[in-house]
Structures are given as structure tokens and as C-alpha cells.
Amino acid sequence: MSVDEMTGIQAKERTMPNLPMKPGRPEKVEFEYIRHGTQSLISSFNVATGRIDQANVGKTRTEADFVSHIDALVVQFPNAPKWHLVMDCLNTHQSESLVRLVAALEPEPIELGQKGKSGILKSMDTRAAFLSNPDHRLVIHFTPKHCSWLNQIEIWLSILARKLLRRASFTSEDDLRTQILDFIEYFNCTMAKPFKWTYSGKPLIS
What span, in angstroms and rounded, lies between the C-alpha atoms of 128 and 93? Predict the structure, then answer.
């Protein structure tokens, strides 16, 4: 699974309707808008199927929001022997709550220590090391700094922006949330397929 957030998605309502395309003239979008607030999207892209298997849209993207998203994702596949999640190094991706979720999936209890003081929970580095341990049932693969483009969900987020967000009009935050979730359902039914990953690992600089 590739996991990422898109924050600050604006619910923009165009003050005038779009002018449809005609022969020799592209569609014209009104540049003036009324802003109704923002929403945040947390989504998980299944690289094997090309589907969005879990998506949450809301006003915040806190540590609790992220852990709730991962928990809902894991619950969908209760018999999976292992999960591999790819994500960037955001602090909410290395949180105490996420460590506790991963630990709870292990067959034996794990002593985690105390946040900021001892053990696995002592620091962000110790938490990241625990979360990326390949022996766990849920393993997180952190993309290197400045390399979030290696995460395939970035491709899907650009599809969402081009197909829906860039040209649409939203009358409220609820309308924005509904249209995003409707687009995901439509995408999963009609457009979803694995991306052809062509990057070979060749160094970008010599």
C-alpha cells in the first residue's frame, strides 16, 4: 500500500458557471470564486490492483486521524500475513499511536517504554526503527527525504487534482468531501489499474 495525505484542499465555488468547449475553443473556467473552507484527504493506494482501498476526508489530519485510517485499512484484510506500507517521513507517520497499533498486531506483547524517556517510544528515530522492522506483521517503508515521488500514490493524487479538483466547483466542505469520495468510487470501478513503474533505480546524478 502507498499511503499519503493531501491537505488544505479548498472548497472553491465558482461565481459563474464554466463556459463549455466549442469547435476551436477550449472550456473556460471562471477565475473568481467563493472559498468555503478546506478538507484533508488521507488515502491508501493498492499498488497491486490500482485501487484506493481506504480514504478518509475531514477537517484535520492529526496523529489520531492517521492511526484511525491505518487501523481501518488493516481491518479490511484481517487474514493478511503481512502488510507493507510506503509513506514519507512526516512526524504523524512515526507517532506513539502508530507504534502501539503495530505492536498490537504482533503475536507477543512488546515492551515499548515511555515516550520521550525510554525504550522504543523514546524518540522519533527509535519509533521509526521499530516501525520499519521487517520482522513485524506491519512494516512501514519510509521514502528518503525529498524523494516522496517514489511513492506511487503521488501519481494518483495528481489524477485526482487534474480530473476533479482543478476545474470543479464546490458549494461547501460537505460538497467537496462528497465529490472526492464519489470520484474515488468512480475511479475504483472504471479507471483503476496498476501503474507501470518504469524507474529502474538508476542514480539521478553521477
Answer: 8
Please tell me the distance from the alpha carbon of residue 4 to that of residue 22, in angstroms, as a whole number: 38
In 76-194, where does DSSP find H-type helix? Answer: 96-104, 124-131, 153-160, 173-190
Q: Are strands 83-87 and 52-58 parallel, antiparallel or unpaired?
A: unpaired
All cell numbers assigned to 165: 479538483
Distance, CA of 193 to CA of 127 (rounded, Å)? 34
φ, ψ at 109 (rounded to 5°): -60, 145
pLDDT digits (tens, 9 = 90+) for 19-77: 888 999 888 887 888 999 999 999 999 999 999 999 999 999 999 999 999 999 999 98
Other C-beta atoms closer than 10 Å to the C-beta of 121 total 21
Domain boundaries, the chain: 1-58+152-195
DSSP state of 118: B
Instruction: Residue 89: name the closest of 143, 43, 45 by CA.
Output: 143
